[in-house]
Every structure is written in structure tokens, then in C-alpha cells.
Design brief:
- By secondary structure, the chain is of the alpha+beta class.
- The chain has helices at about 15-20, 45-55; strands at about 1-5, 25, 35, 60-64.
- The protein is globular, with a radius of gyration of 10 Å.
- The protein starts with a strand and ends with a strand.
């Protein structure tokens, strides 16, 4: 699994951070998503997929 995030599309809702805090963070300057790991460990797979689904702007994509 590999993550792609579109910081320009991100609206800073923070759902990704709440869903997968070990994989996502928010930029202190603008509140937009910051991936902590673009190839998260297998134990984060379910949470990362959920984060992509609940992202209101669709800024998170997953490549399998």
C-alpha cells in the first residue's frame, strides 16, 4: 500500500488524523494533511483505508 495526498485539495478537516494518527498529521501553519509515512505498516491498513473514505475533500488516495 502506498499513500498519495493532495495538499491543495485538503480542507484541513482532520478526519485522517483522528482515524489514523500514526500515519497522518496536520501542518501547524495551514492545517492541511501531512503524511507521516507514505508506505504505512500493515497494521495501519484498515485505518488508512477508512481515513481515505471519510476524507471530505477526497485528498487521500491509496495505491495497492
Amino acid at each position: 500500500m502506498e499513500l498519495r495526498v493532495d495538499r491543495e485539495r485538503c480542507i484541513g478537516a482532520g478526519m485522517c488524523v483522528l482515524t489514523a494518527p500514526g500515519v497522518f498529521d496536520q501542518d501547524d501553519a495551514d492545517g492541511r494533511v501531512l503524511p507521516l509515512d507514505t508506505t504505512p505498516a500493515p497494521e495501519w491498513e484498515h485505518a488508512v483505508r477508512e481515513a481515505a473514505q471519510v476524507c471530505p475533500s477526497g485528498a487521500i488516495a491509496i495505491d495497492d
